[in-house]
Amino acid sequence: MAHLTDIEIARAAQKRPIQQIGAELGIPEADLVPYGHDKAKLSAPFIAGLADRPDGRLILVTAINPTPAGEGKTTTTVGLGDGLARLGKRAAICIREASLGPCFGMKGGAAGGGHAQVVPMEDMNLHFTGDFHAITSAHNLLAAMIDNHIHWGNDLGIDQRRVTWRRVMDMNDRALRDMVCALGGVANGFPRETGFDITVASEVMAILCLATDLADLQRRLGDIIVGYTRDKAPVLARDLKADGAMTVLLRDAMQPNLVQTLENTPAFVHGGPFANIAHGCNSVIATTTALKLADYVVTEAGFGADLGAEKFMNIKCRKAGLAPAAVVIVATVKALKMNGGVARDALGAEDVAALRAGCANLGRHIENVKSFGVPVVVAINHFTGDTEAEIAAVQAYVATQGSEAILCTHWAEGGAGAKALAARVVEIAEADGADFAPLYPDEMGFFAKIETIAKRIYRADEVLADKSVRDQLDAWERAGYGHLPICMAKTQYSFTTDPTRRGAPVGHSVPVREVRLAAGAGFVVVICGEIMTMPGLPRHPAAETIGLNDLGQVEGLF
Fold first, then answer.
1. Can 504 be counted among the known catalytic residues?
2. Among 274, 383, 447, 495, which one carries the catalytic annotation?
3. Active-site residue, selected from the candidate residues 86, 89, 96, 502
4. Contact 125, 109 (CB under 8 A)
5. Which one from 411, 447, 495, 523 is the annotated catalytic residue?
6. What is the pLDDT of residues 181-197, one digit of tens each?
7. Which CATH superfamily is domain 131-250 in?
8. Looking at the predicted structure, is the pLDDT value of residue 107 above 90?
9. Which of 194, 327, 450, 547 has its CA at a distance of 20 to 30 angstroms from the CA of residue 162?
């Protein structure tokens, strides 16, 4: 069946009613809010009642820097979860929801691939249970209330030049990056410059993914800084009385979604901040709930370990009191060859020398992840063109790094192809050798935190920032925000801010273009290089080949 497309494999899945999936985790039917037969949300009272249960073990799946050759991080996350279930472990998977922007753009969906997928794949990659629409609505409600407040007299004294809250939509649309709103005369308000970000870059998305319950959600929403007065005093969403209505819009979206893999392993799919422009992890409430219900919870962090894993450790784990028992770094032979200088159209030929050169990228990620005090195992996500010599070269290299590389065939074989990885993960986790700690302490200054990440994770020589950026960071520290962690917004393709520099570069600088205080989410966004908070569609977006067939089924999703 390997010749079938992902969507054909997903369509043939033998799904169980979602109540059965919930029952495997001990969730009563009354505490599942069904969305059709194969999706459900968990009720807030049920989640609250789990507080005193012990936690299972948390396994993070991350990867080398992504390349056009593909790495298969979500596919490996799903395969590992299914592999653990095949070993008789009570396992659950926690991943992010898919954004429509990359789905209709270039990246495709976010449900795994081959015989290691979460289903229903079409729903997950489209509207799912409406969470992203709710986040978009809550974000834009606040934007509307800002301009409405200014229109009706501006009692708060908001400086229109210092409104920092932009609008969002869940689509790649470069035409909306920078714009002027409220044109057309007196009735339409006061014109000002603004723009759109993609929904997954919204602070509301980050807040939903870090909040522990509805009360915490509303508190964080109220803390959002929407702009400043003429004397530079911050104006909060709470000052506009927007936090209550925003919470109402997000009430259902706050509850984790339960679905299943092709092999009927429970999967929590909830939240979806980008990893290059946000913190790249699924929701805290989904992860902590899964840990109360399962012995092993497999989760992932977006893009390579320099972004996703760093933020998972320094932001999500720090804020939620989590600690991974083991980390899996996903690599592919093709991607390593590309990191070694092989052109994309030449990746099919065996090239052990280039592979060994590209392994430097993998080695740096291994070293970085270990610096957090957690044990690492490497998953070689198998492609049919990989040769025995290439696979052996990766395994030999990883052994020199004090770790182990295990060949995984879950794309073709499902959970059976990840049993060896699952068995090793269980050995590592049950040895309790992890001694997790974030990379920097809360009390370290903002610029020192940025330098710590740039030098220790990216191996940069220096951070370049204008005086205005440094002054802004100093001002936020004086205002009492200095304990917050840093969320680096950087290209995912390189350790540097130049997406074309693959491998393991040294001797580079990290230019900081802008900093944004996400006071509600609880971190400072540091925008580096040319990174965009509103991506664009490629010349030939995936949307061109997506449609319905004669049976009314979706075709073209991947």
1. no
2. 383
3. 96
4. yes
5. 411
6. 999 999 999 999 999 99
7. Domain 2, N(10)-formyltetrahydrofolate synthetase (3.30.1510.10)
8. no
9. 450
